[in-house]
Specification:
alpha/beta, Rossmann fold, 2 domains, 11 strands, about 40% helix, about 15% strand, binds NADPH dihydro-nicotinamide-adenine-dinucleotide phosphate
Amino acid sequence: MSPSNSILTGRDIRMAHLIDGNACADQQCARLSASVAALTHGGHTPTLAVILVGENPASLLYVRNKTRACQRVGVRHEQHLLPSDATESAVLTLIAQLNEREAIDAILVQLPLPPQIRTEQVIAAIDPSKDVDGFHPVNVGRLMLGLPGPRPCTPLGIMALLETTGVPLPGATATVVGRSAIVGKPIAQLLINADVTVTMCHSKTRALADHVRTADIVVAAIGRPQYVQGTWIKPGAIVIDVGINRQPDGTIVGDVDRATAAHAGHITPVPGGVGPMTIAMVLQNCVMLAKQRLQ
Ligand code: NDP
């Protein structure tokens, strides 16, 4: 980008504007409540089936949060709890049943799964038209091709948060740190689809700071507490901190050292940034899949 249309234009070094993920998620949920009410009035309540294998405390918490969110917008919610020693075939049988059931619009398998169960087999077994997380290979392919389909929820939430900044994306540069299939790769693809020029970084990247320094938008999704230093961030840049890292004292911090990033233009807090939007996007995908199935 030329300096005249850069994201930095008109911004001095000052306190970064906090992107409020809770407020954005609240607005999203209000919109969805209206859609769900209309669908319910028409005779079908969007319905999400959640499969949880084992009792991983973090997974239990995520499922509880998703349940609450469903209740909040009126999405019907069905929980299938399997013991931690459940076999892969038990999970596949359950998914086959949920695929068949007309009442079910969306299926979510809470990850991670216990080691005896192959995640890729389980994801591939979900009917792509009920794949609320957008992880099925068919939907990953649709994302790559820019075709419509459910998109992974965290990246979708990030795109909605970027929109709230009002900063135009076409022509901007982004550095995505982390290349997981659930965050890094799909957010990079969504950004490319939005005409952003994207650099992907990972644990083997040399001179990571230099890649971050050039970016108008930084997405940090590595799972390392406060690893990305504020000194790496270009003044005025948008910083999306996806990390959720529990500290020994119980507090949760992101992947970015926010204390040293006050010169960013916009930054997501942790908690209260990307996390609430991920859940809102699960609901959005569920409602979208329900509408598509009704058509
Ligand atoms: P993964 O562990 O699957 O992937 C981490 C990625 O970070 C890998 O690509 C890895 O590189 C890269 N990485 C690790 N260390 C470094 C480093 N020093 N420099 C550069 N890259 C590095 O994590 P996830 O993508 O699943 O999650 C990332 C974080 O986001 C976690 O804290 C997780 O809890 C959080 N998260 C938050 C969500 C939310 O809703 N807010 C949703 C999902 C995740 P390599 O591939 O080379 O190993």
